[in-house]
Fold:
Amino acid sequence: MTDSPRPRPFLIALALGIAAELLFLVNLAIPAKPVFDEVYYAEGARTIASLHGPYNIEHPLLAKTIMAGGILLFGDNSFGWRFFSTIAGAVVIMSVFAIGWQLLGRVRPALYAAVFVLLNFIVYIQARIAMLDGFMAAFVLLAIVAMIAAARAPAASTRRWLLAAAVLLGLAVGAKWTAIPFVAFAGVAMIWLKTRRDRTYFAGVGLVPGLAILGVVSIATYVLTFMPAFFYRYEPLTVATFIPYQFRILAQQTAPLPVHPYQSPWWSWALDLRPMWYLYEPVDGVQRGILMLGNPAVMWGGLIAVAACFYAGLRDRVRPMLAIGLLWLGSYGMWALIPKKIGFFYYYYLPSVFLGLALAAALERYAEPRFKYASEAALVLTFALFAWFFPIISAAPLDSDQAFLRWMWLASWR
Structure:
């Protein structure tokens, strides 16, 4: 009798990434006009591609530099602006699977977590628009994969994984400053694990050298993401102006902004109360819409799952589930402290990703012992809602300018 073949997580992750990429690419160029903040970021990418000069200085360069690569490869058009956002989205899905595999140790819940995230609207929408958050999230999630690997690796390879995590964190901050707290989270996680009685984590690397790697390498990587600005034809960056430029970014980030019709307080995002219309108008000859909304099954069910993760972690000492709960809490709770004058629902991108992990873990631990097919039932419901809402998250043709009403479950969604 032969043993059944062992699962190959890398191949599964790759298959997930390819499937996600193919989904994201369908009708990517529609609409042909800039959508929502693409007005700023596509123009920022355009100026970097031509090395013209500074533009959209509210944010660092890396995400716009990657978009500029799409323009250089595919032309200055909607497909070119958006192409690398699809790659970032596929990386997010693969990373969720990798984190689930590392923490839970099994393919099945890791696979379910990745699919829940894929069907939760938010990654799908952000993977098809030229905005910064998808790139930031991809680098943050890859950094988490590398940090978990570093914590568990044999001494001979710990330093390599830690270096990779530090580089990825620097790239994440170079995409968008909202990744800065994750550098601190990585340091706190390392301190906590290295000072436990069980000192097997981060073997072969001392606490102080490890923290130095995280800090110095991530900062150096962040600095390198500004290299294109040193070659601008107008107002090129110099060594002397680099630090003042960072203060210009800070001033832009914290400046008062006019009231926006789609702004919302941070506490409302988890409840899916105030989505945003990225687009709702006649485009390319037909009425189209893109509603930045979360899948109710994942958004609301995920909150129950997060509570279950904390319950399992604190009461039963199930560390992987506690880690998932803390990832959600840290990525969400930071918005209570970040000094942004106004907030928008899409800031919930990363917390929504961790909902998928929480949902998969909680279903397996608490629901499946009572109902064998609980995860499958949850997946069917999630897919059904994805299919139902698909016309207004994908810019599909709509039959009238009032068509949106059939999807407005709550008055606050209008």
Remarks:
- The mean pLDDT is 92.
- The CA atoms of residues 112 and 199 lie 32 Å apart.
